[in-house]
Amino acid sequence: MINDNDAMKHLLDLLSVEGPSGKESQVAETITRKLLAAGCRKAWIKQDDAHRQLGPGYETGNLIVQLPGTVKHAPRILFSAHMDTVPLCKGAEPVVKDKRVVARGHTGLGGDDRSGCAAMVVMGETLLRHRIPHPPITLLFPIAEENGLHGSRMVRLEDLGNPAMGFNLDGQFPNELVIGAMSAVRWEAEIRGRSVHAGLEPEKGISAGLAGAKAMADVAAQGYFGRIVKGDRRGTANLGHIEGGEASNQVMDRALFTGECRSHSPAFLKRIVKVYRASFEKAARETRNDAGESASVRFTTIGDYHAFRLKKTEPCVRIAGEAVRAAGMEPHPLVMDAGLDANNFNQKGLPTVTLGTGSHKFHQVEEYVEISEYLAACGVLVEIARRCAAPGC
Ligand SMILES: [Zn+2]
């Protein structure tokens, strides 16, 4: 059913369009043009206001395409693939080399996630061209995934036509079914001290830098830095950025430490964050000048996304597995150590499994798309749509 030449053209075209997070309008235009040419009506295509909610730096909203169903009583299903790529992919020029698509120069390729976008275009085109029975389908192309899953977080399920289940395309092998992913939290510790001349009267100063350094040494000594293993509980934590201070002869009166923590267990994630907060507060209290005054800290967190775990009996997992098997592959369910747009969909109450579309080595100059896997994934998507049209699916 899949026309390999057309599928490759869609992939190469979409890989050629620049679209870092927040600057996806050319990608949205390219996808829209392709879907109109495939037979979608203009009235089926819209964009939401995610960019306006996110503020400056975001030029376009999530692209939403709603295909009417061709069968009665089948619930609506969602397919999703994010439009943005990481900054490393700027100026990417895709070329076919042996059985792969790679970037010609020293850039990432952007198969993450343009291979997913292209596979959705191929699926839509194939369903319409061959009049394959299908339920009502929403094709969602979110913005701003790479910089924090922002587009999918802003999505309203009503704008998607309230689908019953979701299939997110943002992975590697076409037989991989991501049924779980982790929670992440970003933290920020803003430490205030007291500035004095560092040579004349240092004992009167309170060093915010020293307090932050003590806090970090303390979390590390407790085993809460980098990979964290406490019994059967697992997580990670990182210090990503430090700023503060103005001059070497001045005691540092302000320092900002920022980082992140992750875990598959929301309860353990809370525990990790608690350790960080306590360490910064203790370090601030214990960093004093000769008058006994201490540093202070304002420790804040932003919950980035929430862990989820789908049962293997969940309809989207079962149907994706059946479609993978029908394509001659063995389904491989797995849990990911990162966040996906699917975290947001699942949190909103839309059960969503994630499948791969042949992209590998994400966020590296070695990134490539394995052509046979990409084409197989296109077939799997058509099969999912077809199966969801069957009575009692
Ligand atoms: Zn991705």
Q: Would you give an account of this structure?
A:
By secondary structure, the protein is α+β, with helices and mostly antiparallel strands. The chain folds into 2 domains: 4-181 and 307-389, Zn peptidases (Aminopeptidase); 183-305, 2-Layer Sandwich (Alpha-Beta Plaits), CATH 3.30.70.360. It contains 10 helices and 18 strands. The chain has helices at 4-16, 25-37, 50-54, 111-129, 150-154, 208-221, 266-286, 315-326, 341-347, 371-389, and strands spanning 45-47, 63-67, 77-80, 94-97, 100-103, 137-141, 165-169, 176-181, 183-192, 226-230, 233-244, 254-263, 296-305, 308-309, 332-336, 352-355, 359-360, 368-370. The strands form 3 sheets. Strands 1, 2, 3, 6, 7, 8, 14, 15 and 16 form a 9-stranded mixed β-sheet that branches. It has a 5-stranded antiparallel β-sheet with strand order 10-11-12-9-13, with helices on one face. Strand 4 (94-97) and strand 5 (100-103) form a beta hairpin. Helix 1 packs antiparallel against helix 4, helix 4 (111-129) crosses helix 10 and helix 6 (208-221) crosses helix 7 (266-286). It is elongated. The mean pLDDT is 96. The protein binds zinc ion (ZN). Residues 82, 112-113, 145, 170 line the site of zinc ion (ZN).
